[in-house]
Design a protein that fits this description.
Radius of gyration: 31 Å
CATH class of the largest domain: Mainly Beta
Number of strands: 36
Strand order of the largest sheet: 6-5-9-2-1-11-14-13
Largest sheet: 8 strands, mixed
Number of helices: 10
CATH topology of the largest domain: Immunoglobulin-like
Number of domains: 3
Oligomer: single chain
Helix content: 10-25%
Length: 671
């Protein structure tokens, strides 16, 4: 099991308080709110909480319906104490419902009440569900039912209860035990009959305080009254397993630096329908990756456009070809042509909404359309190319074992040339051949071809290596002058190119001047390789230090290039650190001692390893030789993903870096 996969299971428990651990049932009922419930102003679970979810309880059962089949019934109840107006957003509810054709999930039995304590008495304000629930279509198969509870004030308590009925058996409701506010009691109950098989998918770091299963027999009645004449009915008994999951005193989970998406780490359970079992006719619902890939390749809005006759592409591709051209050179030309001549009009939809021929005519298309066009063009020239589906970092991790298409939101292209593979995304201007946007490095992805090959796109596999060099001398007027050169890593260069496209070079020059750490005048500012997007850029300029020469001069040898703040601020972290890439940053300084001065204090050199496995190092080397000072800072971190138990190690490592990068050389005038 990879390090990343371990976050999908519960591995640690935090302190619990406020609700006794011996309590096995929530003692909160809808409508039973008394003045005593308003007394707590600060909760032990989180003294800074702006709102606390007192209880959140979900229940899912399966019942026979009058359409000749079965329905899922999900009921949810929640009570929340709003302590501060900054948490008023917790009174906004958005309930997603699925629909397909004439069938749709139904929201019913909505009860929502706000309770305020006025003159020592509890005053209720009820939501008028008929007038104040609004529907908003969010996709071709999704609608959100939205409402806001009335009369929200600081200190109020709100309660919401509703039921969702669904004929889509694959859409067994998931349940989040954790979120942006602390929860005193979080519970999910599921009654699952033996004739339906589901895969249970769990994630998070909190252990269940209660987890029980009980088997019992239940009678199911199904009727079909849709036809003309007498309705058909049948009844049978089946074993049912009652599952119960409870987590008490669940802390809020806030998004911190170096997090792909907080949704990857909240305590949660989800389900995927896998099969029908006896007494139903056996049917395998969840197929294999090979089967899913086959279906996608036959889909009119995906792979079918790659396999049909695309002879019309000949006219588009002919100008890109030249005698003696290698396949790699031609692939580069095709990629550059698509990247530079097509505009992205949409992104996170894997399916095409128009033909590839229309994409070429309009010179625009969705992200998937552009990358599928790239794939088709490469194939037209007999270059091995396949689409790849993945989930971006902000969309969440995927479960590699299960072919669940909803978990994927992005399409790229993989080409294989001379036994080497290249991953391509032509939707990003100024992104080079063989590079992907950082959002794509999110672990498991699938090549959509006959073998449905699994691949891993990991941030651990990217190292951003940057080098900065400063040379400072004394000129003939005894002023300190110098030169600056910097070669950032590839993705830092990509960011610089985008900044310059948006803001212009002068703004970048001003950024360096402001961040230099002392007053300087810049000349001969330049950025090389701006248009060579396959390579890093190179920044360079000359400068004069304009600072007054006092009796004592303090100079930070990092000249604004150091870490001024620890990127890991929190004292603790309950979920992994997910940096965008591994790093190797080198900074070199060669400087003459200012004329008329001597070194009074020089920082101490240190070399510190991140851990015993030598997965990182911080070098801070400084020395004086005659009239010159040599300085070198290097920070190397060999991987991007760190488990929560490694967080303190990272935090202390960067604490030392920040401290050392703040130290200064002290010069004093010669007597």
């Amino acid at each position: 099991m990879t390090v990343r996969k371990t976050i999908l299971f519960f591995v640690a428990a935090l302190l619990s308080f406020s609700l006794a651990q011996s309590q096995d049932k929530v003692n909160v009922k809808f409508g039973n709110v008394s003045p005593k419930d308003f007394e707590t102003k600060v909760y032990a679970i989180d003294s800074n909480a702006q709102a606390v979810i007192i209880a959140d309880v979900g229940n899912s059962i399966l019942e026979g319906n009058n359409k000749g089949w079965f329905s899922l019934v999900f009921k949810r109840f929640t009570r929340i104490h709003i302590l501060n107006k900054s948490a008023y957003d917790v009174a906004d509810f958005s309930i997603p419902l699925y629909f397909s054709g004439e069938r749709e999930e139904v929201l019913e039995k909505v009860k929502a009440v706000t309770y305020n304590l006025e003159g020592g008495k509890v005053v209720e304000t009820k939501l008028d569900a008929k007038q104040n629930i609004f529907r908003e279509k969010t996709s071709k198969n999704r609608t959100n039912c939205k409402f806001t509870l009335p009369n929200i004030k600081e200190g109020c308590i709100i309660e919401v209860e509703y039921t969702i009925k669904s004929d889509f058996l694959w859409n067994l409701q998931p349940f989040d035990f954790q979120g942006g506010y602390p929860r005193l009691w979080s519970e999910y109950n599921l009654s699952l009959p033996e004739f339906l098989g589901y895969v249970f998918l769990t994630q998070g770091y909190k252990k269940y305080d209660i987890y029980t299963t009980k088997d019992r027999m239940e009678s199911f009645r199904v009727s079909d009254i849709r036809g003309v004449g007498a309705s058909e009915q049948f009844q049978f008994q089946a074993n049912v397993t009652d599952y119960r999951w409870v987590i008490k005193n669940v802390p809020a989970l806030k998004e911190e630096n170096f997090t792909s998406t907080i949704n990857n780490h909240i305590a949660k359970i989800d389900f995927q329908l896998s099969e029908y079992r006896r007494p139903l006719e056996y049917r395998r619902i969840m197929g294999t990756w090979e089967k899913l890939a086959e279906e996608l390749l036959r889909d009119e809005q995906f792979g079918l456009q790659l396999s049909r006759d695309n002879g019309w592409l000949r006219e588009v591709l002919e100008p890109l070809k030249s005698p003696g051209q290698s396949k790699l050179d031609l692939a580069n030309k095709i990629f550059n042509y698509v990247r530079d001549n097509f505009t992205v009009t949409g992104n996170n939809n894997m399916y095409t909404q128009q033909t590839l021929k229309n994409v070429v005519k309009s010179k625009s298309g969705s992200l998937s359309e552009i990358n599928l066009l790239l794939t088709a063009m490469l194939r037209h020239e007999d270059i091995n190319a396949d689409p790849v589906i993945l989930s971006t970092r902000g969309h969440g991790f995927t479960y590699s074992l299960y072919p669940v298409l909803d978990q994927y939101n992005y399409v790229i292209c993989r080409t294989q040339i001379d036994d080497k593979q290249y991953f391509l995304d032509a939707s990003e201007p100024r992104l080079g051949f063989g590079h992907l946007p950082l959002r794509c490095y999110n672990g498991h992805a699938r090549v959509i071809n006959k073998s449905a090959e699994a691949i891993e796109l990991l941030a651990d596999g990217i190292t951003e290596a940057s080098t900065t060099s400063l040379f400072i001398i004394n000129d003939e007027k005894n002023n300190m002058v110098g030169s600056f050169q910097q070669t950032p890593g590839y993705y830092q260069s990509f960011s610089i190119r985008n900044d310059i496209k948006e803001k212009g070079i002068p703004v970048k020059q001003d950024e360096f001047k402001k961040g230099f750490g002392t007053d300087i005048a810049i000349s001969n500012f330049g950025i090389d390789s701006l248009k060579k997007v396959d390579d890093p850029v190179n920044l360079h300029f000359d400068f004069d230090i304009k600072a007054e020469k006092e009796d004592v001069i303090y100079i930070n040898p990092m000249f604004g290039e150091g870490y001024k703040k620890n990127p890991f601020q929190s004292a603790e972290r309950a979920y992994p650190v997910e940096m965008n890439y591994a790093m190797d940053e080198t900074y070199n300084l060669q400087m003459e001692i200012p004329n008329g001065y001597v070194v009074d204090e020089l920082p101490q050199s240190v070399i510190v390893k991140l851990n015993e496995a030598d997965e990182g190092i911080f070098e801070y080397r400084i020395s004086q030789s005659g009239s010159g000072i040599s300085f070198r800072s290097r920070i190397r971190i060999g991987r991007a993903f760190f488990m929560p138990e490694e967080y303190e190690m990272l935090r202390e490592f960067f604490n030392l870096i920040v401290k050392k990068h703040a130290e200064q050389i002290v010069f004093k005038k010669k007597p």
